[in-house]
Amino acid sequence: MKIQGDQMKCPxxxxxxxxxxxxxxxxxxxxxxxxxxxSDKFRLYKLLKExxxxxxxxxxxxxx
Length: 64
Fold this sequence. Notes:
This protein is of the alpha+beta class. Helix content is about 35%, strand content about 20%. It has one helix spanning about 35-55, and strands at about 5, 5-10, 20, 25. The longest helix is centred in the C-terminal third of the chain and has 22 residues, at about 35-55.
């Protein structure tokens, strides 16, 4: 699974259209469903990106 910018590519077709659904993580273009290990990597990557965005917005705050 490759990363481009802030998104992960589908291992089968290489598109940036991975989405989390009720049955797991699937590609919108080709319908490929990621394996449990690939799904875990996708979710971890997504959490790390959200944390990175949250950390940047808090940098300007002063401690009390």
